[in-house]
């Protein structure tokens, strides 16, 4: 599927999800190949019921990530706004084809997007607000055929960090 859908979830007085509105889903379009991951920047699992996510990140095999403002009221038919669409390119001068993306994470507070490629061992760090490449780390997992299977951004000790989980049975924290 080359689109992302946004649904409304409603909570009861106890904070439990009581209803999901399928009819008000809004497709977020723009990818030309399969969307492989979505990530939300928001309040996190410990937030109070009703706390809002502000940004959504979608990554795709078309080699792009898209950053959306999803802090909208679906009842009023407000539409999420595309903030940034970035094409990730290989650095090899002989091959300038798009890099198929598999996983991504976003953190509005740090103005950071991190994505990993189809080979799942390279990390790209981008400034979320501008789409500027900050750094690329190649071959992050020291073993052949090892892949990143999960990617998260978090804060600890006043610093923003990235955690990866790999098929090499190792969690890594990147500063």
Please list the strands of the largest sheet in the order they lie side by side. Answer: 3-4-5-6
**Which stretches of 5+ consecutive residues score pLDDT under 50?**
44-48
Distance between the termini: 33 Å
Radius of gyration (Å): 17 Å
**Helicity level:** under 10%
Rounded average pLDDT: 78
Structural class: mainly beta
Number of strands: 13
The shape, in one word, is globular
| Biggest beta sheet summary | 4 strands, antiparallel
The helix count comes to: 0
Describe the structure.
By secondary structure, the protein is an all-beta fold. The chain is built from no helices and 13 strands. Strand 1 and strand 2 form a beta hairpin. About 3% of the residues have low confidence.
Give the topology, please.
Elements: E1 3-11, E2 17-29, E3 35-41, E4 55-60, E5 64-69, E6 81-87, E7 101-107, E8 112-117, E9 123-127, E10 133-137, E11 148-156, E12 159-166, E13 171-174
Keywords:
single chain; 175 residues; mainly beta; four-stranded antiparallel sheet; 13 strands; 0% helix; 53% strand; globular
Q: Outline of this structure?
A:
The chain is mainly β. It has no helices and 13 strands.
């Amino acid at each position: 599927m080359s689109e992302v859908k946004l649904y409304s979830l409603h909570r009861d007085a106890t904070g439990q999800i009581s209803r999901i509105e399928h009819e008000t889903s809004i497709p977020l379009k723009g990818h030309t190949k399969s969307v492989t991951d979505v990530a939300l920047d928001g309040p996190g699992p410990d937030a109070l019921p009703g706390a809002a996510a502000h940004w959504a990140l979608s990554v795709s095999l078309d080699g792009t990530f898209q950053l959306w403002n999803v802090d909208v009221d679906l009842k009023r038919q407000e539409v999420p706004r595309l903030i940034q669409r970035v094409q990730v390119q290989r650095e090899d001068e002989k091959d300038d084809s798009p890099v198929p993306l598999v996983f991504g994470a976003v953190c509005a507070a740090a103005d950071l997007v991190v994505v990993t490629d189809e080979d799942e061992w390279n990390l790209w760090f981008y400034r979320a607000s501008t789409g500027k490449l900050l750094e690329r780390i190649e071959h992050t997992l020291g073993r052949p055929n090892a892949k990143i299977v999960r990617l998260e951004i978090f804060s600890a000790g006043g610093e923003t960090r990235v955690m990866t989980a790999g098929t090499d049975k190792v969690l890594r924290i990147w500063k």
